[in-house]
Amino acid sequence: MAGTAQRLFTHRHTVRYRLERVRELSGLDVGSTDGREKLSLGLKAMRVLGIAHRGGPATEAGAAAGRVPRGR
Question: Distance between the two ends of the chain, CA-based, in angstroms?
Answer without folding.
Answer: 26
